[in-house]
Design a protein that fits this description.
The structure is a single chain. The chain is an alpha+beta fold and about 280 residues long. Helices cover about 45% and strands about 20% of the residues. It has 3 domains: about 60 residues, no CATH class; about 120 residues, Double Stranded RNA Binding Domain; about 55 residues, no CATH class. InterPro entries: ERF_bacteria_virus.
Length: about 280
């Protein structure tokens, strides 16, 4: 890979591959690999041909996208570690549910601390309502989770069409947000997922439960980007299908896939530097 030599006159020159050092005025050597944007700047400065510049621009975009994606998943993981179980506080027809306001009040400050935010996009026809929850990170990466359902007719003629649309949007907003963040909610009242002990709630986690649909989507996306086969992931997790990966393995699988992707990007940088 090409490297930079900085002299005390602040001039810069390209050194041949293999010298890999920055020499300071004290003659100390600090090894540092060039980033794609530095390679691109050098290529433009040296007026290399357009084809090489385009390749470096593509490499830099992939590198930046990968950094943003990694930062997104780290932020999601850190935020989820702080988000408590959200208890169902509203009564529906023969069931309890947590309203969107209580979810927002719980998660918004936590997400903000980790550079995350969310918004909803809604589409509707006479037959179907679709809500998409978009989770965004300050570094630019974002992911979407969509659900669709017919307009709510649970209360029959007591609701007009606009009210039924609004009810469905609220319902789908709640579930797309929960799915996008992988949030847990307390059970209806049967104690399967939560119990009360002297007024204190404690969640009962099942580490052997498989990854949820959103986690599975994240794994599949990274597998495709890193060109890692399903057989390889199944072998690591000792399962016969990636849908059966235990949720306790999720963070380690994501970390391994990100590492594989990073190594591929570094190799591409080295190849581009020798073009």
């Amino acid at each position: 890979m090409n490297n930079i030599v900085e002299h005390n006159t602040e001039t810069m020159e390209i050194m041949p591959a293999g010298t890999s050092a920055i020499r300071t005025t004290e003659e100390h050597e600090i090894t540092r690999e060039l980033t794609p944007v530095e390679l691109l700047q050098m290529a433009i400065r040296d007026r290399v041909n357009v084809e090489i510049i385009e390749r470096l621009m593509e490499l830099n975009k992939r590198w930046e996208d990968n950094k943003a994606c990694k930062a997104f998943y780290e932020a999601i993981s850190d935020a989820r570690a702080e988000i408590p179980v959200i208890f169902k506080n509203n009564q529906g027809h023969n069931y309890k549910y947590e309203d969107i306001a209580s979810i927002a009040a719980t998660i918004d400050p936590i997400l903000a601390r980790h550079g995350l935010c969310y918004r909803f996009h809604t589409e509707s026809t006479k037959e179907l309502v679709t809500v998409t929850c978009i989770i965004s990170h300050k570094d630019g990466h974002r992911e979407r989770n969509s659900l669709s359902a017919p307009p709510d007719e649970a209360m029959g003629n007591r609701k007009n069409y606009n009210h039924s649309i609004g009810s469905t949007v609220t319902y789908l907003s709640r579930y797309t947000l929960r799915a996008a963040l992988g949030l847990a909610a307390s059970a209806d009242d049967d104690g399967t997922y939560a119990r009360y002990n002297n007024g204190q709630a404690s969640a009962i986690a099942n580490d052997n439960a498989p990854v949820n649909p959103q986690q599975l989507l994240q794994i599949k996306k990274l597998m495709a980007e890193a060109s890692v086969s399903e057989e390889r992931i199944c072998s690591i997790c000792k399962v016969d299908n990636i849908e059966n990966i235990p949720s306790r393995f999720f963070n380690s699988v994501i970390a391994k896939l990100n590492q594989s992707l990073r190594l591929q990007m570094e190799q591409q940088q080295k190849e581009a530097a020798h073009v």
